UniProtKB/TrEMBL annotation:
Every Elongation factor P C-terminal domain range: 130-184
Pathway: Protein biosynthesis; polypeptide chain elongation
Source species of the chain: Pandoraea terrae
Residues covered by the Translation elongation factor P/YeiP central domain: 68-122
Places the protein is found: Cytoplasm
Keywords on record: Cytoplasm, Elongation factor, Protein biosynthesis
GO cellular component: cytosol
Predominant place of localization: cytoplasm
Its job: Involved in peptide bond synthesis. Stimulates efficient translation and peptide-bond synthesis on native or reconstituted 70S ribosomes in vitro. Probably functions indirectly by altering the affinity of the ribosome for aminoacyl-tRNA, thus increasing their reactivity as acceptors for peptidyl transferase.
CDD domains linked: S1_EF-P_repeat_1
NCBIfam families assigned to the protein according to its UniProt record, in alphabetical order: PRK00529.1 (NF001810)
Protein name as catalogued: Elongation factor P
Amino acid sequence: MVDASQLKAGMVIMLDGELHSVASAEHHAGGGQQGGAVFAKVRNLKTNHTRELRFHPGDKLEDLALEHKEMEYLYTDGVTFYFMNPDTFDQIGLPTEIIGAYEKFLQPNMRIPVALYEGDPVTIAFPPAVELTVVSTPPGLREHETSTFKSATLDNGMEVLVPQFIKEGDTVRIDAASGKYLERIRREARKP
């Protein structure tokens, strides 16, 4: 059990018999006759619905420790995403609602940490950024211009805006949550 005042983003708690992930938690001190309060935004891991809650700082909540297991992404049938445990070759399925916006970044054979509760998968711990290769982009108007952007198609079929100096074959880092360009990855040339 944990006090509501100790809630932090990323924790998983049990509310009304269902697992919820804490997206954010703010503690507001009270004054005068007004007591303190904790405002938390939580996401139901089963239905993916988000809601905002208010707790008294001393309210006891059931926090859960999830087991993280690295699994290999196999495929999707449009409704469920299938992952395989590389040690036991057991397969599990996660619904599209849990994968959410990360769907476009999943590639076959990609290894992703899957959070398990009592052996059942509840969510994935997707990395904050992914590296993808530029498949096609028009030549830059001005090679060294960084304040204007152009469109580029990545190897996963996604289109993003990139600086003018990016060319076909470059590897770029993309923010997984927003889908925006972060930086170009420089590959060091091997010295003989």
